[in-house]
Fold this protein.
Amino acid sequence: MQERGSAFQTISFPLLYVITEDVAVSPTGRRRSHEEVARAAAAGGASLIQIRDKSASTRRLVEVTQRCVDIMRSSNGLLFVNDRLDVALASGAHGVHLGDDDMPIAAARGMAGDRLLIGASVASVQEAEAAVEAGADYVSVGAIYSTSTKLDAGDPIGCEPIRQIKAAVNVPVAAIGGISLENVHLVVDAGADMICVVSAVTRAEDMTDATKNLLHWMKTERGD
């Protein structure tokens, strides 16, 4: 496993960050596994995948995550786990993402040391600064736009908080919530280092093509 911090040095920003679902389904209603989503998104150029599963047993989640770690390593990408520090450590994942109700950042950093990158959900400049001081390697803000994926995401906040948080912290800033082909250019223009999507990829007819299309518009906005 790469040491903390060095993993981010192998990829360029802004990057596409795809988050899986407990039950991802295709437009025709077919269930898609975490591995299928990771493989398709990696093939399309996604640099980072987060496994988000609130229903799987610990054993199954470790096994699934290990397989997804292998998928992402083959494409020089990163694999994160949502919430579960124990699963991230046991599976060899690159990092863990922690929300408001999860383990405190400082406690997680104390347990993980430099073995994991840690991401933190924040809602303000003050929360972002506190998360970084506690040991977060990146912060995530949202919901930028309306989203049906996470029902407790709250009202959309728009892109201005991205700019405010970017100006206040010296770690990458991720943006999440309702990001799609129609608005991804606005999120990149606001300065987001990580563009987080769920349904824009996991529920697309062709997940690899959806990933490629998002990256195309991200690069277009950046001027590549």
